Amino acid sequence: MDVHIPRDLEEKVRVDTVAREKEYAQELQREGRWLHLWRIVGQYSNISIFDVESADELHELLWGLPLFPYMDITIMPLTRHGSAIT
Ligand SMILES: O=C(O)C[C@H]1C=CC(=O)O1
Predict the structure, then answer these.
(1) Residues 6+ apart with CB under 8 A from 59
(2) Which of 7, 28, 48, 55 has the smallest C-beta neighbourhood within 10 Å, fewest atoms?
(3) How far does CA 15 lie from the centroid of its chain?
(4) What residue ranges define each of the domains in the chain, with the CATH number in brackets?
(5) Per-residue pLDDT tens for 20-74?
(6) Ligand 1 near 61 CB (within 6 A)
C-alpha cells in the first residue's frame, strides 16, 4: 500500500483519518485477519499480509480503510509453498 495524502487536505481531516486508520488496522490485527504490517523504510508505504477467505472479503476489508481513497494498492495472492516447514 502506497499512501498519498493530498498536501492540501485539511489538517483536522488528515489527523482524524490517520487515527481511524490506526484503530481499524489494529482491530483487524486483533481479529487475526491482518497478519503482518511492515513499514517500507523511507516511504509512506507498507507491506501487509492478510488472512482472508476470499477476494470479496479482502475487497471489503480494503474498502473499509479510512485511508483507502488516498492509497494505491497492489495485491499479490499468496499460497503456501510446498517446501515450507512452518
Ligand atoms: O501507514 C500506513 O502504511 C497506512 C495504513 C496501514 C495501516 C495503518 O495504520 O495505516
Answers:
(1) none
(2) 7
(3) 17
(4) 2-72 (3.30.70.1060)
(5) 999 999 999 999 999 999 999 999 999 999 999 999 999 999 999 999 999 999 9
(6) no
Instruction: Read off the amino acid at residue 56.
Output: D
Which atom of ligand 1 approaches the CA of 44 most closely?
3
Regarding the beta carbon of 29 and ligand 1, being less than 6 Å apart is answered: no
- Cα–Cα distance for residue pair 48/39, rounded to 1 Å: 9
**28 CB under 6 A from ligand 1?**
no
Which residue's alpha carbon is nearest to atom 5 within ligand 1?
Answer: 21
The CA distance from 84 to 86, in Å, is 6
Give, rounded to a whole angstrom, the gap between the first and last alpha carbons of the chain. 26
22 lines ligand 1 (CB under 6 A): yes
